[in-house]
């Protein structure tokens, strides 16, 4: 039996350190935690409860939705809409923002989320996750619109993800480092197992979808080519490669043992600046990575400083171990 620190205890103790904290935020995070437990259970049961496979519908991104994309979106909304902490939500799976229904009180926070990240992996039983980002609703706004969500990532008050892998984990930051919790299913609690997670500054492991190579820009071509040349090339060392196609799993690997992850700008579709979405993928992951000592960049600018122009905006992402990301950013400057 353990007597570890539960995520609830951890959040309450963090809040106590903040002057003027009302407990509102603690309570909001508890609802997020509940949603992640429900999603973990659904993902875990899989075929036994008939939740795998496609829903044959399309979301606003033009992507075919899996049944679980829709179900997990519903779970996240239902867990978070009722308690009075949020003014509105934005989701990968909702075309527009989701206003808090009239029967519930409204709160002072906005939440953007990706209910099921890496959903192409769900039917093949590979890790998926949930990503969320919390900001304050602008002062004096009771009925936020899409525009009220367009706040730079530097303003996030909390970012986190749940990873549904061999263990279910929750990784959180409120701007005071990064902490990881593992779900103990027997007691139904996330327990602090990975305090103060930090990303090693150096790495010899990169992650990129190499099937897009012909569309990459010169700096990324150069970087990957140099890694592939190994010991005999300009880097003078052998590199390893990974691609899970679940950003949550890639970021978690990087938080655990270092690495660099890239979904860079490419010319595959000139109308899209990248693949990943700023508000509910790139920004929350950037906050986590930076809080763990890493860097998160587009190659041209720090992701968290970007002024968003749409809730579903796409951005290039290059993140991970500091010294390696700096090399790629340097190639963009050359
Ligand atoms: P989602 O399942 O929420 O649409 O996100 C998938 C994202 C990200 O998790 C992953 O890194 C990337 O898409 C994988 O893209 P490819 O299929 O192009 O490799
Ligand atoms: Mn995603
Ligand atoms: Mn998703």
Q: How many individual domains?
A: 2
Low confidence ranges: none
CATH class of the largest domain: Alpha Beta
Strand content: 15-25%
Output the strand order for the largest sheet.
Answer: 4-3-5-6-7-8-9-10
User: How would you classify the helix and strand content by structural class?
Assistant: alpha+beta
Description of the molecule:
- The chain folds into 2 domains: 7-194, Fructose-1,6-Bisphosphatase, subunit A, domain 1 (Fructose-1,6-Bisphosphatase, Chain A, domain 1, 2-Layer Sandwich); 205-333, D-Maltodextrin-Binding Protein, domain 2 (3-Layer(aba) Sandwich).
- The chain has helices spanning 7-16, 24-45, 67-80, 218-228, 247-257, 278-291, 322-333; strands at residues 54-58, 64-66, 86-91, 98-99, 109-117, 128-136, 158-164, 168-173, 179-184, 189-194, 205-207, 240-241, 260-263, 276-277, 295-297, 314-315, 317-320.
- It is globular, with a radius of gyration of 19 Å.
- Strands 4-3-5-6-7-8-9-10 form an 8-stranded mixed beta sheet, with helices on both faces. Strands 12-11-13-17-15 form a 5-stranded mixed beta sheet, sandwiched between helices. Strands 1-2 form a two-stranded antiparallel sheet.
- The protein is α+β, with helices and mostly antiparallel strands and 334 residues long.
- It starts with 6 loop residues before the first helix and ends with a helix.
- It contains 7 helices and 17 strands.
- The structure holds 2,5-anhydro-1,6-di-O-phosphono-D-glucitol and manganese (II) ion (2 copies).
């Amino acid at each position: 039996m353990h007597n570890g620190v539960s995520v609830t205890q951890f959040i309450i103790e963090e809040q106590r350190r903040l002057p003027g904290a009302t407990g509102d935020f603690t309570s909001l995070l508890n609802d997020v935690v509940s949603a992640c437990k429900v999603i973990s259970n659904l993902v875990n049961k899989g075929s036994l409860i008939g939740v795998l496979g496609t829903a044959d519908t399309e979301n606003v991104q033009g992507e075919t939705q899996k049944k679980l994309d829709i179900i997990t979106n519903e779970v996240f909304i239902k867990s978070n809409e009722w308690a009075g902490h949020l003014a509105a939500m934005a989701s990968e799976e909702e075309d527009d923002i989701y206003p808090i229904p009239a029967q519930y009180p409204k709160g002072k926070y906005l939440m953007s989320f990706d209910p099921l990240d890496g959903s192409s992996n769900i039917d093949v039983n590979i890790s998926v996750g949930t990503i969320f980002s919390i900001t304050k609703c602008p002062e004096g706004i009771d009925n936020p619109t899409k525009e009220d969500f367009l706040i730079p990532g530097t303003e996030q008050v909390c970012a986190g993800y749940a990873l549904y892998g061999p263990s279910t984990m929750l990784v959180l930051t409120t701007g005071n480092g990064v902490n990881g919790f593992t779900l103990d299913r027997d007691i139904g609690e996330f327990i602090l197992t990975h305090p103060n997670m930090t990303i090693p500054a150096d790495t010899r492991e990169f992650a990129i979808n190499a099937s897009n190579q012909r569309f990459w820009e010169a700096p990324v071509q150069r970087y990957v080519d140099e890694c592939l040349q190994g010991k005999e090339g300009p880097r003078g060392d052998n590199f390893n490669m990974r691609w899970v196609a679940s950003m949550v799993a890639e970021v978690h690997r990087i938080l655990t043992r270092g690495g660099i992850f890239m979904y860079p700008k490419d010319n595959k579709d000139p109308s899209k600046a990248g693949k990943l979405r700023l508000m509910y993928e790139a920004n929350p992951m950037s906050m986590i990575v930076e809080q763990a000592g890493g860097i998160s960049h587009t190659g041209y600018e720090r992701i968290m400083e970007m002024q968003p122009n749409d809730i579903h905006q796409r951005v290039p992402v290059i993140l991970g171990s500091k010294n390696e990301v700096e090399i790629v950013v340097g190639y963009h400057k050359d």
